[in-house]
Write a structure and sequence with these properties.
Blueprint: E1 3-6, E2 9-16, E3 21-25, H1 36-42, E4 47-51, H2 69-82, E5 88-93, H3 95-106, E6 111-117, H4 127-138, H5 141-147, H6 149-163, H7 172-181, H8 187-198, E7 214-219, H9 224-236, E8 241-245, H10 252-255, H11 257-271
Parallel strand pairs: 3-4, 3-5, 5-6, 6-7, 7-8
Antiparallel strand pairs: 1-2, 2-4
Length: 288
């Protein structure tokens, strides 16, 4: 099981392929396998790396009493140092997108390209968003202690589909399969991860510092506040491209993997342009 020391934890990671590096950062309460469809497809041309964020999967928890997106970004920096990676393309989904945008703003020289999928900036754009990102998420912790996060999330999925869009959760069975195949998250770790997400609005992200080619993706059936956030991110990051993923919900890369893979591959071509081969010199022949 490949792990590497990053700050005060042993971080689990998987590496595939050869070529320029692409690092995938998963969302909250899942693990590195969330990005499997893209890693498998892109490892034909690129070195793909996915890891389990602190508190998740085979990395597991730590003795820290509180987590934050800033801490997760520091862990990512330590991971890139430990793996001796310099300029990388970062792909982050949901909470992974929060981590990726923080990292790209603080270490622009180490980021060759950026993909932000189904994610949001620190700033609240409406009162309803504040309620969903803060109060509703915090309210999940007590029932999770009683019933487990899998059952509570199913309740939340049903609730969101009633108040937003029936397709907001996409093919939720994809997420459930990830949960079934990986280690279970401890309830205390769940609480710390939720604390990191709900505290993200305290984080400062200097979007003008992000200079790498950037792609912002969002599922067509995402919650309204997430669609607004996608447009906001694309506006705040100069030159960013914005694309809706047709027929997709919150985990757009799992709902429509081929569409997302193709979009990421196009961003990679921007980030890592192929230099044209030298044109061979033409030798003129003298006449007889």
């Amino acid at each position: 099981m490949p792990t590497i020391r990053t700050n005060d934890i042993e971080t689990y990671y998987e590496r595939r392929g050869e070529g320029p590096p692409v690092v995938f950062v998963h969302g909250a309460i899942v693990d590195h396998s969330q990005w499997d469809p893209q890693r498998e497809a892109l490892s034909d041309e690129y070195t793909t790396i996915a890891y389990d964020v602190r508190g998740h999967g085979r990395t597991g928890g730590s003795q820290r009493g509180r987590y934050s997106v800033d801490l997760f970004a520091d862990d990512l920096d330590a991971l890139l140092d430990a793996l001796d990676l310099d300029e990388v393309v970062l792909c982050g989904l949901s909470t992974g997108g929060c981590i990726a945008q923080v990292y790209a703003a603080r270490h622009p020289g180490r980021v060759a390209g950026l993909v932000l999928a189904d994610t949001f900036a620190p700033e609240y754009l409406s009162v309803g968003e504040r309620l969903q990102r803060s109060l509703l998420l915090r309210a999940t912790v007590p029932p999770v202690r009683l019933f487990g996060y899998e059952r509570v999330e199913r309740w939340l999925v049903r609730l969101q589909e009633r108040i937003a869009d029936e397709g907001v959760s996409g093919d939720y069975e994809n997420v459930e399969r990830i949960r079934e195949s990986g280690p279970k998250m401890a309830t205390d770790e769940f609480a710390k991860v939720i604390g990191a997400v709900t505290g993200f609005h305290h984080t400062e992200v200097r979007f003008p510092a992000i200079s790498a080619p950037t792609l912002v993706l969002y599922g067509e059936h995402e919650a309204p506040f997430m669609r607004r956030q996608a447009r906001h991110l694309a506006t705040e990051i100069g030159g960013a491209s914005l694309r809706a993923v047709p027929k997709a919900g919150h985990a757009s890369n799992l709902d429509e993997p081929e569409f997302v893979t193709d979009a990421v591959r196009k961003l990679l071509a921007q980030a890592y342009p192929v230099e044209p081969a030298d044109t061979p010199a033409v030798t003129e022949k003298s006449g007889a």
